[in-house]
Each structure stands twice: as C-alpha cells, then as structure tokens.
Amino acid sequence: MAIDRTLTNVERTFQWDDVIVSKTDLTGKITYANDVFLGISGYTEDELLGAPHSILRHPAMPRCVFKFLWDRIADGHEVFAYVLNRAKNGDHYWVLAHITPCYGKTGAIIGYHSNRRVPKPEALATVKPLYETLLGIEARAADRKLGMDQSLAALVKTVSDLGFESYDHLVMAISR
Question: Quick one: pLDDT at residue 176?
Fold first, then answer.
C-alpha cells in the first residue's frame, strides 16, 4: 500500500465524547481499530489491520516520547501521553492517549490496548513547546540514536525540574 506522506497542515478534530480505540500485538501491528479511529485517521479497516501503528507517526512528534511510551508499556505499566498523529491524507490530529498492556492466561503481555481522547487546549499549550524543544535536540544530533537519547534525557530533566516523577505523571497533572 503506497501512502502519500505529504503534510496538509490541516488539523482534524473529533468529538469530546468520542474515544479512538485500537489494539496492537507486541510488535505494534494493529489488530483492532474502532470506527472512530477509522474516521479520524482516514484509513480503512483493511489498510490498518496488520499495519504498524507507526503508520500514523507525524514527523513533528519527538521520537523520545515513543521510546518512553514503549519502554513503559513493555515493562507492564500503563502510560498517558500526548501524541500528534498524521491522517492518511496528511492532515494531523492531537490525542491524549492511554495505553495499557494486555495480558494472556499465563500472565505474559500479549499486546497493547489504547484509548485516545480529545486533549484539552491548555494541556497542548504546555506540550507543544516541549515537543518543539525535543525535536530540535533530535535534529541537531550527529545521528538518530544519539538524538533520541539526548532528547529523552532532556525530557526526563524537564519533567523532574517541574516536580514530576515521569512524563506520564506530568501528562496526568496537566490533563485535569
């Protein structure tokens, strides 16, 4: 499936009471997408099922936030994060994501479940400048891995300087 990766600079929105729901396997491949997810992303169910969740990755989203997110859920923690996604046609939309691991009968993690809601504008006013700073750190680094490591360190320091234990604790505080 060839996807046009250009950006439109058009922001999509969804209703306050809508919930975007998806499930993935351990590698991030989508195994379930609800109708709200299909509608906001512009993809069909056939296009999404089996595709990596990164199909939605917007280039203005810091890689370190995804590293934090994946590390936390792989360790069995729930995570809250603000994410900027890219729709199929290049539009974008912000979400407040709540991601949790799914467990099998043996107690092992078998996949992940995510609910996404409309974020509060006040919270995005805090997150957007932070993400711009993190993206700048990533862009200035000699290579992608170093950039992600440096931006993750900056994220951890910023969160700590603000008095929070972790990024997702900051997210929960500004989401209230």
Answer: 86
Angle at alpha carbon of residue 129, lines to 81 and 40, rounded to 5°:
50
For the stretch 79-130, pLDDT in tens is: 999 999 999 999 999 999 999 999 999 999 999 999 999 999 999 999 999 9
pLDDT band at 4 (very low <50, low <70, confident <90, very high): low
User: What is the phi/psi pair of residue 113, to 5°?
Assistant: -125, 135
Whole-number Å distance between alpha carbons of 172 and 61: 19
User: Burial of 66 by CB count in 10 Å (0-12 exposed, 13-18 middle, 19+ buried)?
Assistant: middle
Q: Is there a contact between 94 and 124 (Cβ–Cβ < 8 Å)?
A: yes
Q: How confident is the model at residue 3, as a pLDDT?
A: 57
> What's the pTM?
0.92
